[in-house]
Amino acid sequence: MDEPKDTKTRGWIRKVTPEMVPPSLNDNTADVDRLMKGIRKALPQNEILFDFPLAREIPTILGKYDYQVAAVLFEDHDRLHLSGVLPGAADAPLYGLAVDLGSSTVVVRLLNLSTRERVDETSFHNPQIEIGLDILTRIHYAAQEGGLQKLQSLVRDRLNQEVHTLCRKHTIEMMTIAGMAVAGNTTMTHLFLGLDPYWLCREPYIPALNSPPIIKAHELALDILPGAPVLVFPNVGSYFGGDLIAGILASGMNQQEEVSLLVDVGTNAEVVIGNSDWLMACAGAAGPALEGGVANMGMMAGPGVIDKVSIDPDTHEFHTRTIADQDPIGICGSGLIDLVAHLFLSGMIDMRGKFVRRTCGDLLREKDGITELVVVGPEKSGTGKLLTLAQTDIDGLVRSKAAMFTILTTITNTVGIPLSKIRHFFIAGTFGSYIDPRSAITIGMIPDLPLETYVPLGNTSLQGATQGLLSAEARKNIFLIRDQITYLELNVNQEFMNFFSAAKFIPHTDKSIFPSVRP
Amino acid sequence: MDEPKDTKTRGWIRKVTPEMVPPSLNDNTADVDRLMKGIRKALPQNEILFDFPLAREIPTILGKYDYQVAAVLFEDHDRLHLSGVLPGAADAPLYGLAVDLGSSTVVVRLLNLSTRERVDETSFHNPQIEIGLDILTRIHYAAQEGGLQKLQSLVRDRLNQEVHTLCRKHTIEMMTIAGMAVAGNTTMTHLFLGLDPYWLCREPYIPALNSPPIIKAHELALDILPGAPVLVFPNVGSYFGGDLIAGILASGMNQQEEVSLLVDVGTNAEVVIGNSDWLMACAGAAGPALEGGVANMGMMAGPGVIDKVSIDPDTHEFHTRTIADQDPIGICGSGLIDLVAHLFLSGMIDMRGKFVRRTCGDLLREKDGITELVVVGPEKSGTGKLLTLAQTDIDGLVRSKAAMFTILTTITNTVGIPLSKIRHFFIAGTFGSYIDPRSAITIGMIPDLPLETYVPLGNTSLQGATQGLLSAEARKNIFLIRDQITYLELNVNQEFMNFFSAAKFIPHTDKSIFPSVRP
User: Fold this and answer.
1) How far is B206 from chain A, CA to nearest CA, in Å?
2) Structure pTM?
3) What are the strands of the beta sheet with A118-125, ordered from one edge?
């Protein structure tokens, strides 16, 4: 699913080895003009454009390698642009980088542009976290003197460091990295590009830029071929970024006749509905609960973090699975959804999400006036302390899942498509892949559709970036998607509040719309 | 003649004032995208391209001027490029600079791009003269550590200084200078662009670059609108530069059915012959004599320099005219040609250019074993000293005029066009304008055609640059001219030497080809 398997898909970054005879008294064409002539001979009917500074380097390279060179080119707006000239070696591959620019994690995939194969993949925590874990803090920091530059250089320097490491590891010349595609949300994109994010979080919520042109690597001080094109996925608005465009691209929903839904579950719930004819998008705050970000025992996925839970309906015994099979130290979002779903199924919480004292028994305790459920006792815990779930944690999750379901109800109502008509319900994002749809249906976070409707896609941001980097067709699609999307502003009116109130029950006040959930 | 009078000629640099409504919750399009939309509304059916760094500035400018801005655009390769965004004021004009980048003098013309009118014109000695008067010295200097950068910055800094002065003088914002066109010979162009000129004077004599793309002003550190396009006239080869292309453009010879000749007289004699169907060019060393560069009393044109001479055939009295009517201090090229022509007509020199002792009488004297003619006595001289013309000076001029005539004979022979079929004989260059064609014919430097055939054009480099700056059609023509030109390598073979030997007489060994010259 990750790489376009159709090797016939035409790339937009390529290399040609122009035939050139070294100059002589009989043919003293200028160096740059000689190279252009050679390229045009190899790629007839193409005009070759180039940025002037390259002209200063070409004669040196031609002389040094005795006119045995390869020209690196890319397509943009139906024109070929020369991005660099490399020493001979017709068979040496070109490389490219696909980047998922997450606010917490940045994933970098190194690809061989010639074979389209993945060479390596690596990830790192977004170093902007040292400025602030959440996006708003970073936006505020950007307004300080030098703040924007600091945020930009943090992520760029770390990315460059990763590029160096990858090059060393695979014995690759940095100059052979001839392209990059970057997908991130609107704020991450702004910070990556050094664009002022000030108005992203302030009325009227306007981005500085939605559709970046192709940017040359040197304009962003990236340590790859200086003239390499950097494809930055466009945003649709402050709350709907390039990562989602990449998601739509990766899902292929915009090329299917049947209507699909795409959901990215996170602090913001981002939802797209549509098909090859139309796309409507909507985003709303879901709160950090779905990612396990705020619960007592909540944390991001990592070794020892519980990502799956079941409860024996008879014995009420907890079965937990932890990442890397280590002693549990916390719970991540998918684990939390499982846990709450099973607490409901086993009668330990009621429809309102409140602990049922009778069924929970000894597992309940009070701390600072808040009721908590002991999930892991100190003897089994990786921290040596109790792992507990507070009533407030459940309340937070219920609000979040209610927000998600309300957004789904609102957007499907707006377009007048009954949920039963949804062919695929794509779940985007690495985090979303871990969610058990059965549990998510049980708590009423997503609609009660046949389980096969749900398709976890993994890191769609990275997949979309990969496709955009490798395929001219995909690149065109990105801009078609952007032009096709209608963005639905969530209007928090009485109707929305009514939907939300009904969705704050588990699974819902109207049990008939969740027939498969039987506690 | 200087400005294209047809105001219908379409420009390629322009300004539009896009209509934009400031963003609101109902229309929170991103700033850059809003501007692009506004421009596309004003210029429908046009795609607008822009360089990424501009995106960082646009939101600030839009905010500062409340979305009342003007977009500056230029055409290149059939696409519109955004070069900058200026504060409102729909009626404020855009300016441009046409530059004649001479090796001794740089001329800068400031133009109003909206009205196409010349606002001002100024010139300065090329500061590279401090490195070396002749081009070869500069090429050698460029090979030294930091030499090329020094040469480039010398002329750039001086040009920037001139821009500042012009802006102050006419109360013009530098950011409203939205374009520049530069014509110079191949070496001057290389040094201006920071391109290594090493191979220009070494076999196989290859330029680094013949056809520069449009360069952005900031890429050359020019103090005008940073995104302004700089049109640098292409070269045809090491010895045939953009100044000549500008000359052809200014003469219009490439748009006429009749065959014309264009000659630029200087240290190099550059000749073009052709019409709207074909163009052939040729260049050869003529030596500095034609410019008055080496004669005893020779100097560049300036106050007190003799630029016109006649000799009373009976009394042998000299009548001299000096620039600014000051006492004579030397003689420039056109004066020298006059002087030698009249010496010949009055029988003071013979066909070989040798002094005739009998006719010269007391005016002759010997100095360091060389015979000299006293042209101006100490009592009339502006220097208080004798101004003399040495036999060696005449010998030099005769060699130079012979070279020029030989090149003319060679190129017309090559294309098989008899000189009588030449409709116009254009003389390019400021220096050329001062030459009296009658005298030049007398010494056998140019063919004996009816005087009305000779058309002095003045500074064609500057005129061509002006046209290229103002007109899209002219810009297109530049590249048509470049593609049309066949460059004839001068082959110094036996035939050439025979032509040359015959031309070393005044006016020629074959008097029948100079019927109008009667000593």
Assistant:
1) 5
2) 0.90
3) A118-125, A105-112, A95-101, A177-184, A229-232, A215-216
The two tokens of residue B191 are 């040094």
Query: Between chains, do A206 and B28 touch, taking CB under 8 Å as contact?
Result: yes
Which phi and psi (to 5°) does residue B513 adopt?
-85, -5
Which DSSP string do the residues of A168-211 spell out, in sequence order? Answer: HHHT--GGGEEEEEEEE-HHHHHHHHT---GGGGSTT---S-SS
Confidence of residue B4 (pLDDT cuts 50, 70, 90): very low
Residue A371 vs residues A32, A282, A306, A340, A341: alpha-carbon distances, Å: 76, 36, 21, 15, 18
Shortest CA gap B11–chain A (Å): 22
| Helix/strand/coil for A305 | strand
Comparing CA positions, the residue from B111, B87, B110, B64 lying closest to residue B17 is B87
β strands within A35-117, DSSP E: 48-50, 69-76, 79-87, 95-101, 105-112
Confidence band of A155 (pLDDT split at 50, 70, 90): very high
8 A C-beta contact, residue A260 and residue A211: no
| Model confidence pLDDT, tens digit, residues B80-124 | 999 999 997 667 899 999 999 999 899 999 999 999 999 999 999
Q: Which of residues 372-391 of A touch B (CB under 8 A)?
A: none
| Nearest partner of B500 among B284, B260, B345, B238, judged by Cα | B284
Distance CA A169, CA A39 (A): 32
Rounded distance between C-alpha atoms, residue B2 and residue B462, angstroms: 9
Q: Dihedral angle at the C-alpha atoms of A82, A85, A86, A92, nearest 10 degrees?
A: 30
Q: From B81, which residue of chain A is nearest by alpha-carbon distance?
A: A213
Return the DSSP state at B258.
S
CB contact at 8 A, B101 and B188: yes
Which residues pair with residue A84 across a beta bridge?
A72
Question: How big is the A-B interface in CB pairs under 8 Å?
Answer: 137
DSSP tag of B23: P
Residue A76 amino acid letter: D
Strands (E), B47-174: 48-50, 69-76, 79-87, 95-101, 105-112, 118-125
Which residues numbered 21-50 in B keep a CB inside 8 Å of some CB on A?
A: 23-25, 27-33, 36, 47, 49-50
Contacts of A25 in chain B (CB under 8 A): 203-205, 489
Whether residue A275 contacts residue A255, with contact meaning beta carbons closer than 8 Å, is answered with no
Q: Do residues A449 and A419 lie in contact, with contact meaning Cβ atoms separated by under 8 Å?
A: yes
Q: Using only C-alpha atoms, what is the Rg of chain A?
A: 26
Give residue A342's identity as a one-letter amino acid code: H
Contacts of A55 in chain B (CB under 8 A): 193, 195, 208-209, 212-213
% pLDDT > 70, chain A = 96
Q: Cα angle at B171 between B170 and B175, to 5 degrees? A: 110
Sign (positive/negative) of CA torsion B5, B7, B13, B17? Answer: positive
The whole-angstrom separation of Cα A236 and Cα A257 is: 23
**Going by C-beta distance under 8 Å and a sequence separation of 6 or more, which residues neighbour residue B424?**
B251, B253, B256, B258, B260, B261, B453, B455
- Sign for the pseudo-dihedral over CA of B501, B502, B508, B514: negative
Q: Could you give the CA distance from residue B275 to residue B269 in angstroms, rounded to a whole number?
A: 20
Phi-psi bin for B444: left (phi > 0), alpha (psi -120 to 50), beta?
left
**Contact at CB, A52 and B219, closer than 8 angstroms:** yes
Tens-digit pLDDT profile for residues B477-501: 999 999 999 988 887 788 889 999 9
How many other CB atoms sit within 10 Å of the CB of residue B54?
A: 19
CB contact under 8 A, A213 and B51: yes
Distance CA A404, CA A504 (A): 10
Pairing of strands B279-285, B268-274: antiparallel
Identify the H or E element spanning A156: helix A147-170
